[in-house]
Amino acid sequence: MRPLPEPARESLTLAPVLHALGDPVRLELVRRAWGEPESTCSALADGLKVPMSTLTNHWRILREAGLISMSVDGRHRRVRPRADDLDDRFPGLLDPILRLGAAEAPDSGLL
Amino acid sequence: MRPLPEPARESLTLAPVLHALGDPVRLELVRRAWGEPESTCSALADGLKVPMSTLTNHWRILREAGLISMSVDGRHRRVRPRADDLDDRFPGLLDPILRLGAAEAPDSGLL
């Protein structure tokens, strides 16, 4: 597995994390990644009505903001939530966002 | 005072709110507005090294996402945080964001 570049824990800042979460598709991808901590890009995006190129961009934004780790595994891209790094840098941030995102998900029209 | 248009409480959704907060300048403006619930655009932006046109755009994004109310009062634009609306729609969301934003503010380089 070849890990893709990502920011170090100590360089994570709040605004890029909120920006990364500030899109309905990315918010849904993060919710799914947190629910399935060992998965792949394609499995997590299953059923979303979004072009592949847009999804690739979304995953990059999430990785560069520090929300997820990604690694290339043959033909798959594996996704791992950076839950520990985020809890360390931004304690108490993600739980309400994931909870509120879950409450909205049925009405989001993403599927 | 002439109020500027804003989304109704019941139409507020999470992603635009996070997007609005996902910029260091807007995050700082929101922090200041919450600290001074009756203020003006110019007073809240005091000292920020940002062009006026950029600030105008930031205030619009914050208003359209539902974070603030704005009204025209002669030559001033008055700003009021929509704290009750946000607490109603997104309970538990804003407190950690404002707290974490405050912790980062001294290093933000905005001033």
Quick gist of this model?
The structure is a homodimer of 111-residue chains. Chain A is an alpha+beta fold and 111 residues long. Helix content of chain A is 50%, strand content 14%.
- How many helices of chain A does DSSP assign? 6
- Mean pLDDT score of chain A, rounded? 95
Strand content of chain A: 5-15%
Uncertain segments of chain A: none
Rg of chain A, Cα atoms, Å? 13 Å
- The CATH architecture of chain A can be named as Orthogonal Bundle
Strand order of the largest sheet of chain A: 1-3-4-2
Oligomeric state: homodimer
Helix content of chain A: 40-55%
Gap between N and C termini of chain A: 31 Å
CATH fold-level topology of chain A: Arc Repressor Mutant, subunit A
InterPro entries (chains A, B): ArsR-like_HTH, HTH_ArsR_DNA-bd_dom, WH-like_DNA-bd_sf, WH_DNA-bd_sf
Domain HTH arsR-type (chains A, B): 6-101
Organism (chains A, B): Actinomadura yumaensis
Protein name (chains A, B): ArsR/SmtB family transcription factor
How are the secondary structure elements laid out?
Two copies of one chain form a homodimer.
Chain A (H helix, E strand, L loop, with lengths): L1 E2 L10 H8 L2 H12 L3 E2 H4 L7 H14 L2 E6 L2 E6 L1 H7 L4 H11 L7
Antiparallel strand pairs in A: 1-3, 2-4, 3-4
Word description of this protein:
Chain A is of the alpha+beta class and 111 residues long. Helices cover 50% and strands 14% of the residues of chain A. Chain A contains six helices and four strands, in the order βααβααββαα. In chain A, β3 and β4 form a beta hairpin. In chain A, α2 (24-35) packs across α4. The termini of chain A are far apart. Chains A and B meet through α1 and α6 of A and α1 and α6 of B.
